[in-house]
C-alpha cells in the first residue's frame, strides 16, 4: 500500500506495514501498479520518472526512458503495464505555436498535434515505437481504469475508442 503520497515522505508498505520502498531524496512516490504475474511493480515518481522494481526486494530492475529519442519537443512518457514483460508508453507532441492573437492560457489549452506510442521491453531494456492504426482519432490518450484495463480515448478523455492493443513482436 502507498502512504504519504504525494509528499516527500511517501512510502510503499507491505501487508505487515513494513516499509518496502521510500520516496527518493527530494522526490515523492505518486503511484505504483503490480504486474499481472506479481513479480514486479511499476513505480511512478512524477515528472515522467518511473522505475520497475522487484516485488521481493523493491530494488530497481529497470528504468524506462523519460522522453522519446529524436523528439526534443515531446512531453515525457506516461507508462502503463501492457503484460508481464512490456510497458506501453505515451508521449505527446505539443501544438505548433499558432502565432499572435492567443493568450498564454489559450495556447496551453490547445490539444497536442500528435501522439507517440512506444513499447518498452523489460527483459531487454529496449524501447520500440509502435504503430497507431489510422482509424483511431489523433491525438489520443491511453489511460487505465480501476481494474487495470487500458483504455484508448480521444485527447479530451471524453470518447472511448473501440480499439485493441495488439502486441506483435518480431522473433
Automatic annotation (TrEMBL):
Name by which UniProt lists this protein: Uncharacterized protein
Organism taxonomic ancestry: Bacteria, Pseudomonadati, Pseudomonadota, Gammaproteobacteria, Lysobacterales
